[in-house]
Amino acid sequence: MLKGFDPIISKEPKVMILGSMPSAVSLEKQEYYGYAHNRFWKIMSDVFEMPISTYEEKKQIILSHHLLLWDVIGECEREGSLDSKIHNEKVNPIQELLKIYPSIQFVICNGRKSYDLYQKHFSHLSLSCVYLPSTSNANRSIKEDVLFEKWREVLKKQNL
Description:
The chain is built from six helices and eight strands. The protein is of the alpha/beta class and 160 residues long. Helix 2 packs across helix 6.
């Protein structure tokens, strides 16, 4: 079984960003979105106008903008990094986390797998949830400038 990461949590988070499960490279590096071609940190850097030269700088974006970064899946079996190869997944205790952080008002799901799993396991929660196209390098069905704009639009609406 592969095990994901603990969440990165700002003080009084308002928005929870959920991926599916860290990639093989991310697990090896022990960093969220550790694969160099994943566009997540580039989008965050662009939206919040902060540097991303180190993992500490990347985490600082989350910590300084009322965000919480986690994954829907806590453990799973998977060969490689593709979401389509995930099976026997165990979801993270998102409902329990929300009890600890009642300031969370909005959920962003990074990609279809995280959105589908969130809807399957947590649709009963009274939080607004939006699907955004995956920042993964495997998602090349959307042009990068369009991807950035979709993320920017949703994040800016949250007044972070």
